[in-house]
Amino acid sequence: MKKIFSVFVVLIALVGAMAYGVYLDYNKYLESPVEAPGNTIIHVKKGMPFNSLVAELKRKDLIVNELYLKLYARHTGLGRKIKAGEYRIDSQMTAVQVMEILTSGRSITYNFTIVEGSTYKQLLAAISANEYLKNDTEGLSLEELLKQVGAEKTHPEGLFLAETYSFEKNSSAIKLLKRAHQMLNKKLDEEWQARNTKLPYKSAYEALIMASIVEKETARADERPIIAGVFVRRLNKRMRLQTDPTVIYGMGDAYKGNIRRSDLRKPTPYNTYTIPALPPTPIAMVGPEAIIAALNPSDGKALYFVAKGDGSHYFSASLREHNNAVRKYQLSRRKDYRSSP
């Protein structure tokens, strides 16, 4: 009897020692880096079974012990909390950290930039070229697209704030555009409410039109309010704006890189050399700074400006001074002359 008892005690001790060894190994596994081959990307599909995810982790050499990971997931309940998405697994993450990130919902994000001064046509082309966005704009008419993003206007130009937007892989392009449109409305409304009421705009939309012209005239932040000031003074004096970007926009595909005198005389809704007012719509997408400039123009006397060729402009209060500046900076262009945007 004593012998049987002794054997039983030894067996219990062995089982206990083995269990303790497994426990130590289990904890060591959970706390050790997975040693992934660099930064590994894991795609978790919606509704993906946990066992399928474990198999994928195993296939990418992110786990060496499937049983331990399944035990941990079952013990913590994390196996039922995995969220769909695209996750980056760092080589120094532990198994615990891998589970934390897979249940966090912090999917990898990508950036999409709506470029200041870009047109709606260019925006759609950029969406089409983006490999991470789901281009659900394809096949939609302009009317359908504007309806889906919540736009009240029928012309798309200027309706999406030029900013950088983050999104997850395969996100809807329509949803991104809707967000950009909402941000445009929010920024425009904020600045419109705080505006100087003596400005010549009849509506916030007219201020947006002005912002788009300013955006196309210069890429320099310090010049935007100055250029807006020139155009505001011209409107107040009932002078034509005479701004080339509007002419170019009105020419559409007929523009081949140069504006001829005949183009300046040809009447279009956007030819500000012939119309004594703002064009009917914006001509480009605008950033927040252009909106601020349009509604906070600089004071001054300048009524004219000309590109100096280095990205900046020379401002003049009189036509005589302006003509002299044109001769200096444009008629006698340097070899490296570069017009302002």
Name its key features:
341 residues, mainly alpha, Dna Ligase, domain 1, Double Stranded RNA Binding Domain, two-stranded antiparallel sheet, two-stranded antiparallel ribbon, 13 helices, elongated
Q: How does this model look, in words?
A:
The chain is mainly α and 341 residues long. Among the domains are: 26-102, Endolytic murein transglycosylase (Dna Ligase, domain 1, 2-Layer Sandwich), CATH 3.30.1490.480; 109-187, no CATH class; 301-341, 2-Layer Sandwich (Double Stranded RNA Binding Domain), CATH 3.30.160. It is 47% helix and 9% strand. It has helices at 2-31, 50-59, 66-76, 95-102, 120-129, 142-149, 173-193, 204-217, 224-236, 244-251, 261-265, 288-295, 319-331, and strands at 40-44, 85-89, 109-113, 133-134, 164-168, 171-172, 304-307, 313-316. The strands form four sheets. It has a two-stranded antiparallel sheet with strand order 1-2. The chain has a two-stranded antiparallel sheet with strand order 3-5. β7 and β8 form a beta hairpin. α7 runs parallel beside α12 (288-295), α8 (204-217) crosses α9 (224-236) and α8 crosses α12 (288-295). It is elongated. It starts with a helix and ends in a 10-residue tail after the last helix. The model is unreliable at 334-341 (pLDDT under 50).
